[in-house]
Amino acid sequence: MSHMTDTIPFNSERQELSAAEFKKAIGPAGALLGIDYGSVRIGLALSDEKRERATPFKIISKIRELDDIVPARGIKGFVIGLPLQTDGQEGQTAHNARLFAARLTEKFHLPVLWIDERYSSLETEEYLRDSLFMRPDARKKVLDAHVAARILERAFKLMK
């Protein structure tokens, strides 16, 4: 087993870090970027410096839109939703998310924590509809960023 140092050992094929390894790699404080990857829209959420709150941030469509966000927000790592199929298997969407993450790690050299995002879109849409009473057209405009926040919240629980 390799010793974790300031250099983050990535498995370039799958970028797998446990929650404990990720926590060690990102240090004790600093913002995380939650990502709900989709082929059309990419939802983003930001954590606070203490990693206690996740806030929906914005929706982007291209990776280059992160060029300013990541350094300006002092991002220490990425928490990405892994869109598994209901049976737990990885399909084409998960494969595409992993390709996106590989581009992120190549570009920014930051660690990635994968979070099972099954049912997160459905749960978030129900929350937006039932708790915030948002109309369908309004929900669609913010859903992916809210899902990214839910993904970050799941990561917080794993890193405790």
Helix content: 40-55%
CATH architecture: 2-Layer Sandwich
Shape: globular
Using the CA coordinates, give the radius of gyration: 15 Å
Strand content: 15-25%
Helix vs. strand class: alpha/beta
- The CATH class assignment is Alpha Beta
Please count the helical segments. Answer: 5
CATH topology: Nucleotidyltransferase, domain 5
Give a short account of the largest sheet: 5 strands, mixed
Structural write-up:
The structure is a single chain. By secondary structure, the chain is of the alpha/beta class. It is 42% helix and 18% strand. It has helices at residues 19-26, 66-72, 92-108, 120-130, 136-159; strands spanning 32-36, 42-47, 54-60, 77-82, 112-116.
Summarize the structure.
With about 160 residues, the protein is α/β, with parallel strands linked by helices. It has 5 helices and 5 strands, in the order H-E-E-E-H-E-H-E-H-H.
Which keywords apply here?
alpha/beta; single chain; Nucleotidyltransferase, domain 5; globular; 160 residues; disordered N terminus; five-stranded mixed sheet
Topology:
Layout (H helix, E strand, L loop, with lengths): L18 H8 L5 E5 L5 E6 L6 E7 L5 H7 L4 E6 L9 H17 L3 E5 L3 H11 L5 H24 L1
Parallel strand pairs: 1-4, 4-5
Antiparallel strand pairs: 1-2, 2-3
Helix pairs in contact: 4-5
